[in-house]
Structures are given as C-alpha cells and as structure tokens.
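User: Teach me something about this protein's shape.
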Amino acid sequence: MPRTPRPAFEPYEESEDGLANLAPVDPVPPAAPGASARLTAFYLSRDRVLGLLNAERLPAHLLAALQGQDVVMSSAILSNAVGAYLLNAIAAGGVKTLQQLAFEGNLRPGVQFIYDGHVSGKGFAYANKSPALTLTEKLDEPLAGKKLVFEFSKNGLVNDTAYTRMSGSTHLFAYGYVAGIDDATIRAVPYVVGDLVDRSAGLPSPFLPTLELRPEEIAQFAGMDDDWMPSKAEFERMRQVPEHAVKELLCGLLGEYTVPSDWGGEESDVFSANLTVDAKRHTGAFLLKGPARFHAMKPTDLGKNGDQLYRLFNIPAQIYVVQHCHAIGAAVRKQAEAFALARTFVSPCRIVFMDGLATARLLRVHDQWPAPATPRRRRP
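Assistant: First, the predicted structure itself:
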C-alpha cells in the first residue's frame, strides 16, 4: 500500500521517520485558478477529502455533508461546494500532471496528480451489483505503453447524473494519487472526479478549451487571410522555409531586435514581453519547429528526450506558443494542454498552436511566402 499522500495545500516538515508533520492552513477557496474555473464533482471520496482539508476550518454545512450527516441538499453541497476547496488544495500544493512527474522522475506510489482528458468508464450500469468502478485511458509520451486506471467505489458517487456522465467514452477531470505502477499500468485512487468548467459564460462549458488562444488574436499576428487555403503543392513550399526565417519574422513583429541563437539546453526559442492581446502586453515563450521533420508534430520530435514542451512550461510566461511547419498532432496538443492546465493553477496562462497553415498565412501576409519553383527548360 502506498504511503498516505500529504495534504496538497498544507505546509509540512519531514520528521526523522520520513513522515510529514502537517501545519493546518485555513482552506478558504480563492478566486484562482483562473478566476473562472469551477469543479463540479460526480465522485467524491469523503474520508480522503477530509484528510486533505482542515476540518476545523470548514463551514459547518460542508463539514456535515462530508461526514455523511443528514444535511439538507447534501448532494448539491458535495457536488458544487467542495470543488472550490479542492481547487485551492491543488493550487497551493502545486499538484502536477502525470507527464510532469514522469519528466521530473517523481512518478511513484503516493504522489498526487491531476488529470483532465478522455477516459472510459466501466461498472456504472444500474444492473451492475458490484460496487467497483474504473476509469481507464491509454497514455501518450512520455508514458506511452502504459494505461491509467482510476479505481473507486459507487459509494462515493454524489448524484444520479454521475452514472450517465462517467459511463463509457467521456471527458473528465480527476484529482487523485498514484496507488501503484507496473510495466503496463498506473493505478490511481481519486479524491474527486468531475467536470472542470468555465463559469464566466452564461452556461458552464469545459474549462480546458478556454486556455487556447488563436494566433490571430495576438495583435502582432493579425491580418492573416483566413480564407486562403494553400493546395497540397503550394503547402510543400513550407519545406523551403527554415526555422530561423520564422524566428526572424516573429522577432521582427514583436519588436525583439536580437534574434536568439539555438543551443541544446534552451527552454524556449523566443521569449518576448511584447505580445499584445486585447490591447494589453503579455509575456510569451515560443517553441519553434522547422522543416527538418516535415510531418505532423509528435512528442518524439520534441528534443532528444522528448522534453521540450516540459521545459517550455518551466518558463514563467502568460502565453505559450507552439509553432510547427506542418500539422501539430493530437498527442502534442494533449501534452501541451496538460502543462498549460497545471501552469494555470499557479498563474493564469494561455496556449497558442501555430501550425503550418497559420505559419504559411503569416509568411504570406508579410510577403515572405516562397515563390513557386521555376520549371527547368528542356534543352533543344
């Protein structure tokens, strides 16, 4: 059995026996992460959540609901009120994703993590008499070849919606800890499983998509012709555009008069404090990939150790830009979104995917799109 995970938001000191001496902290939920994030719970491990939070400082109605007392609208309290305190625990504790833990060499039993993505839920049918439930998903790099399996009980489902919302192929947010790892499987136990939603709009919508910013929303990249779609033959001209040419264009547009040189240990290809969005300046960190590998970007294209995205998100920035001369594959997008989500719990950020089409449009609007090759004349 793994050691009981440390409470995520309470400072601690290591005692001589290696166990944590906890100093309780007032668990008042903040406005962050991202002022608009809200966690709606479908599953809640009440005992484990009570172990995370300082029960003496919780509101009486919330504490009573977590303790299983007969409370008016107990289901609504567990579903809608506890999430804010758990988001606070994640933010204050700097809880990371599985990918971050893997790159850091800290993925081991007992460690806490967050996950937001696709899962397949089993055991939720009303006819199923077994209390055991699972959520499963195959993982991408740097954990390719493994699957993530959350294991928990029906006893923690907080409302009837959970049965339909968590069954089959679905998208969910989970906060839990690693229970065990072998060659094929990462087994995990959740504190909470639910929807991470954006509450800034009239109707709640998934929070993760709100982190993405379109390239043309950055003022310096505006003016691209969204109606221009190069043919396959025209798009092949991207092979002629070296990474350095894209870097020079970006630096020029952002008012960066020094174009940084490439070196092996860099965390970003370009860093600027001049990105303008909605008339406000933002800091931005860029990862650029040229035509050396002219195919859809995969995690294995991101450096010798596949850790370029991880290193990019180690830079304190407000906007992270992933640029490639070709398409940006789903596995790269998911990894970048996971890093952006974890970063947002520390400080709000956005992510931009500037694929080959967006890059081509930017080159074209600035008269840097390569001319068609002149066909060779046959000798008479």
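Now, about its shape. The first strand starts at residue 12 and ends at 14. Residues 212-365 form one domain. If you'd like, I can walk through any region in more detail.
User: That's plenty for now, thanks!
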